[in-house]
């Protein structure tokens, strides 16, 4: 499979009065057509900022300070906004975490979806509404043609999220960046959306970056996973191998924190401490203050250890079980 997206040494910083927030530091990865990549980590790890960087939606005081983002061979860093708008929505789409922030409360669902259709091609009103209704049906909205005349406030939070996902699917984009897109959905609808996404990737070759803190969802959907901490990728590899036998202590801590790992009546496991401020990261490995394996060597930057297609950024990686 050819690489559709190539990210190299990406740095995205926010320049605030308190100092420089290094939200994304040296992130590199590639994504093939039809591949699903999971991006996981705690809140504040840099997942969403990485997604916003990919589609050129980092607002001041933030900006990409260095690095490369190549989409189908075209460099996106520094691309004029007019050219980026032609790509965004048509060939690259994003599903945001909060649908209330993406839907206009004074326009009907049909009006908003028709605007999205016409923004990237000529279509009659009837054709735009027909495409919108068919796409809403794909994401599980019943009586979709009638619901086009409803306003966002007439939908539940989960239904609004399904509308946001449908809008992203309208033009059959080559790349979709999804930021916690199923958080507000119930389990049955979540399963339906995940199945639709996997089908989309398999049949049309759409690549997907799935940003989530839900390791169970990522394990059932993604082909590969990137684990982020403090703006950096600390581990990456095939999703089954990485989540079954993690090598970074942080990845191990995330898995041990899942409620399913605790017995009834027992206290839940947790990673001690809290994520560090990106304004004042400790020297060396940023996870060291919370890591049970940390020692004096962790005061220096950890090396990138690559074995068998897996990467781990750690001085003391966990052994891989036989």
TrEMBL record:
PROSITE patterns: ABC_TRANSPORTER_1 (PS00211), ABC_TRANSPORTER_2 (PS50893). Keywords: ATP-binding, Cell membrane, Membrane, Nucleotide-binding, Transport. Its main location: membrane. Residues 5-255 form the ABC transporter domain. One of its GO terms (molecular function) is ATP binding. It comes from the Bacteria. It is a peripheral membrane protein. InterPro entries: AAA+_ATPase, ABC_Ni/Peptide_Import, ABC_transporter-like_ATP-bd, ABC_transporter-like_CS, Oligopep_ABC_C, P-loop_NTPase. It is found in: Cell inner membrane. The keyword Transport applies. The keyword Secreted does not apply. Belongs to the ABC transporter superfamily. This is ABC transporter ATP-binding protein. It comes from Falsiroseomonas selenitidurans.
């Amino acid at each position: 499979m050819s690489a559709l997206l190539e990210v190299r040494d990406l740095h995205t910083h926010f320049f605030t009065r308190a100092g420089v927030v290094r939200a994304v530091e040296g992130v590199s990865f590639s994504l093939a057509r039809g591949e699903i990549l999971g991006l996981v980590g705690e809140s504040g790890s840099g997942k969403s900022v990485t997604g916003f960087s990919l589609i050129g939606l980092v607002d001041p005081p933030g900006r990409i300070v260095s690095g490369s983002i190549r989409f189908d061979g075209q460099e996106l860093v520094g691309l004029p906004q007019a050219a980026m708008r032609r790509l965004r929505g048509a060939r690259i789409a994003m599903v945001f975490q909060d649908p209330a922030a993406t839907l206009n409360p004074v326009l009907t669902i049909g009006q908003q979806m028709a605007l999205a259709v016409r923004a990237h091609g000529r279509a009659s009103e009837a054709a735009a509404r027909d495409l919108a209704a068919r796409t809403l049906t794909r994401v599980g909205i019943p009586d979709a043609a009638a619901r086009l005349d409803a306003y966002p406030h007439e939908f539940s939070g989960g239904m609004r999220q399904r509308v946001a996902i449908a809008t992203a699917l309208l033009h059959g984009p080559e790349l979709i960046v999804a930021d916690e897109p199923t958080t507000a959905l119930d389990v049955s609808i979540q399963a339906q959306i995940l199945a639709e996404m996997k089908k989309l990737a398999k049949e049309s070759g759409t690549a997907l970056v799935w940003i989530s803190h839900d390791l169970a969802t990522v394990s059932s959907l993604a082909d590969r996973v990137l684990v982020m901490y403090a703006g950096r990728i600390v581990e990456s590899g095939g999703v089954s191998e990485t989540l079954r036998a993690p090598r970074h202590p942080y990845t191990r801590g995330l898995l041990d924190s899942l409620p399913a790992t605790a017995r009834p009546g027992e206290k839940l496991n947790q990673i001690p401490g809290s994520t560090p401020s990106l304004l004042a990261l400790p020297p060396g490995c940023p996870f060291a203050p919370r890591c049970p394996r940390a020692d004096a060597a962790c005061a220096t930057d950890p090396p990138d250890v690559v074995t068998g297609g897996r990467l781990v950024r750690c001085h003391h990686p966990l052994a891989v079980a036989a």
